[in-house]
Amino acid sequence: MRPPIASLVVLLLVVAALTVIGLDGVHAEQVPQAVLNGEQQIAADTALSIRTTIDLEASTVRRTAGAYPATSTSTPATALKALTWAKKGVLGSALLDPHTGKLLAAGGKPAPLAGVNVARTASGHGAIQPRLVMSGGTPQLLYFAKVTLPTQQEEANQVPSRTERQWLLVVSEALPALTAFGDGRTAEVLDARGEVLATTAHGTASRAAADSGLPAAAARAANGSGRDTDASGSLLGTTAGSRRTVAGWSQVASATGPGDTDDLGLVVLTSRAVPTTTTAADYSRFALEAAGALAGVALLLGLALHFLVQRPLLRLYLSAGRLARGATEDAPTAQAELYRPVPVHGFGEPARIGRALESLRRQLLGRSGPQEFPARRGPGYRALAVAGVLAVACWAAPMIFLLNRADTATAVPAPVLADQQARTEIAAMRIRQSLDQSYTDLSDAAASLPGRSRAAQSEVLQHVLDDHTRYRSLYLLNRSGGITLRVGDTPLRTLLHVPGGGGITTVNTSGRIPAIAAYAQVRAVKNKASAAGVVLFGEIDVKALNSILPRPKLGSVWVTDRGNKVLAASVGYRAFQSLPDSGLARLARSTRGAPGTAGTATSAVLRTSSGLSVDAAAPLAQSGPTARLGWHVVTAEPAAALQIPAVQAEQRTMLAGILGLTVGAACLGWLHVVVIRPLRAVAVLVERLAGADRRTVLHPVNHDEVGSVTRSLELLRQALAERDRAARDGHAAGPSRFLRENTLQR
Predict the structure, then answer these.
(1) Under 8 Å between Cβ of 568 and 549
(2) Global pTM value
């Protein structure tokens, strides 16, 4: 019985110490760590958008060059025009001889090729990564691709030459458009030296008010972290009055090995001025008071169990052993033990066993006969264990449910809530860009179909499907809704009525998988049977959308339709299910603006069954092919995952309460299993023995105090059985003699 009691006291004191350590470590800083982490993640999200745009543009240039139907008679001028006519963002372009660097053709503004070793650039195998160059003080990106021409043949014998002709395509474009989200935020693109290449501001932010030392500090931090990872971090700037500049930086580099942006050395820097915290949050006093209360409960429980359980049970153990010796030994000192009354100590089971032992003593001396004990009994040790658990629960329940509860309105700093909204808008932008690109690629494919044969159309669609893994299938629908040509998987569902124009649409409203498709009209060609298919559909794999949504410290992300039904998510979901919380649905509905408008983003702090949650919602698009969908992006980040002092205090207070209640219940449950429950069984057996039940053998189960009492009671049962047998046979012998003879015979 000692280990459970000692463990209860020691572990409760350990929980008290952990309460002091945990809550004493919660302090409110001038700028909460959650604000710094949020700015870091916003910079990382912005860098991801720029990296995705550059990677996409580089792959588009290479894909266009690889798909160009060059012939041996193609001229550089016609080839350059065909390769760049559909690209709107091209500042300049050129075709070069990859061996000599000679300019073969040029278009637009002259491409800034100074400092570019053309021969060395084109000599490597595989894709050529973009270059960052300066032209007239303006940064530009150069994209490269090799244009392979058919092998020239000798006119005389038509034997193929071993010399392969190639041109090097160079396309110069401006840096991707930089967008700042969140009122008062400035976003900048830096080079490896910390020079500002591009900047933009949102709302009341201005570049002049930004901290001039932050770009250099961000560049140094990025250079120190390596250039082949998407490293990011946060910085603190200068203080102006009651506000301080908070900045986040992130490299524009691939996170999964070599990529098109690794050698550019670009760094994204975002910054904004946030109000500093003036009120200090100190939980030391509360921690000491809570720990002192738990220590008091632990000591009181230890004393109560010592005096009410341990000491009575030890005395019972001594009394049972004394009676067993008196009943089984012939020594005069042992026989004298039978004449000493059995003291009754405590209450409950020890008291019941003590009274039964006194009855057995009197029966051994022949002073009384069997005694019946009442069936109804008072509270026992089980009630004591329950009272102990309730005593610990009286301390733990307020810790879990009442004390240090974070206020929904004030616990989460306003900058943290604004950061969640800004990151939700960035997530909506990524989804929108992906869908817009799907529509653009499909429109380009549809523009190349008219006038081609069915086999040629199938070949074009197969190339598009191979180059763009976001599509599940590509198919042509005629005016009656029938599929006339298909490549890829079987469509999940098709539209019965062919829509006009082009855009993004949902094909189904129920089922296991949402069917989302981009569609574009195929221009009809007169007197051509190949014009039977009038609309080209590209069914978008919902897994491609799901893969865009997860971001560190953004929480759960859902894409919902106009009716707030889930179409895609960063977590497990069922297609077309409702949002997991009604508060999220209300938040999504609140983003809708006046009729005819796309609405605005919004955010709120909600209390759910699992605690506070920082949530935000943003409309998917205000223009473009996705504007008519009415979709939303909804995010929910548990406040417990953010380093907010009020939330940390609530979380650690609840944890202390849970630990205390668990320790109390576990140790008292242990005491119940090893002591109380066996003792209750012994009490029932000894009362039966005192009531003339001599046949039930008492088997000791454990080698502890209760087991020793059980062994002593078994000796008493055998002595009483011999006494009763002697009385029936008419023998006048003491119980010890018959017990000894019986033992010798065995």
Answers:
(1) yes
(2) 0.82
